[in-house]
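hey team, just a heads up i'm posting the complex here instead of the shared drive bc the drive is being weird again. everything in one block, sequence lines first with there labels, then the predicted structure for the whole assembly after. its two chains so it's a bit long, scroll down
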Amino acid sequence: MALTLYGYWRSSAAYRLRIALNLKDVAYTQKPVNLKDGVQRSEAHRDIHPQGFVPALADDDGVLIQSPAILEWIEETWPEPALLPATPRERALVRAYGAVIGCDIHPVQNLRILNYIRAEHGQDNDGVTAWCQRWIMDGFAALERMAARDALPGSYLCGEAPSLADIYLVPQAYNARRFGVDMSAYPRLMAADATAREHPAFIAAEPERQPDAPEDGH
Amino acid sequence: MALTLYGYWRSSAAYRLRIALNLKDVAYTQKPVNLKDGVQRSEAHRDIHPQGFVPALADDDGVLIQSPAILEWIEETWPEPALLPATPRERALVRAYGAVIGCDIHPVQNLRILNYIRAEHGQDNDGVTAWCQRWIMDGFAALERMAARDALPGSYLCGEAPSLADIYLVPQAYNARRFGVDMSAYPRLMAADATAREHPAFIAAEPERQPDAPEDGH
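-- predicted structure starts here --
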């Protein structure tokens, strides 16, 4: 099955899919969509992704959208190595880590939202940074509290091997550093992030290593 | 297994869980958390829900948070009637409908976000309404386009029976009406919403029927 990933080097949700496909050792071709050009809002792109976003993942049968849905599809299609634990309760825990990031941190600071608060609320760069930091810090504080209470033992966020939780954490921690968030307030997250970032599947998925990453990193 | 749902009558995410539990015919006790009082931000509540949100679902083994994770847990724990189709591709489609709402519509207009744009961006009621309408309309336009392209046949959003997609749609459509969004622009969503709202499991989950709903509906 030939897979095509429509993404963008710095898209947090595309980064998740790259990690998951790498962990499963599934090959894919990248079709970068330059979010800086606004091409994602074109009718042609909306025929691929009705929201005008990335990522989308296409195979011979059609196009899938929404990284939470695609991650579950990847897990169901290539079960090994498992990205979710065996019991429903542990699976719910791991998915909750993902949802804190995937629902309550990342979408709130999506490009369209930042464009809106600049245009309609008169926010400048400082206002945008404060906005992003606020939602990252709120979410990370909750995740750190979850990690203290509920974590499954191991050096990854939820166990001895990478899980869906790490797949969400690493791209969000990358964004957090980019927005100047002090990660030392979240020692458990920082440790899990450091562990995961040494894994070859995570390394190969890093934004700066993608074909559309600019050479100067900006 | 005794289940306790920490919710709020008007919480969209709690509304999802009520529908799902009703569809599975699983009994639960409600513990309302009055979001208007701010009690959700207390340390006591954060011991239940580290984000200071609702909903949370507790059983004898502990507390689960994040409605996307809890819905999957409900589906895995009580498989019948199924809320997801049988094939991975169809499951990904249904989950994508859920994620458009659960990630890109609902969290962006969460109470904490609305409080922030009032306090920090100087937005008044009109500004808040414009904000909510914008993200609902963006998301519903995408969902309507998905429903035209990819829908599984049937009078529900993704088939002949209620699925996860309807569980996300109905509470979001309720919110859309509350914020004055013109639903006639989304005929497929409106038809699916109307079908689902005639189902007893959806009726029993309606905000106004919950124990903490005020008698005057506000």
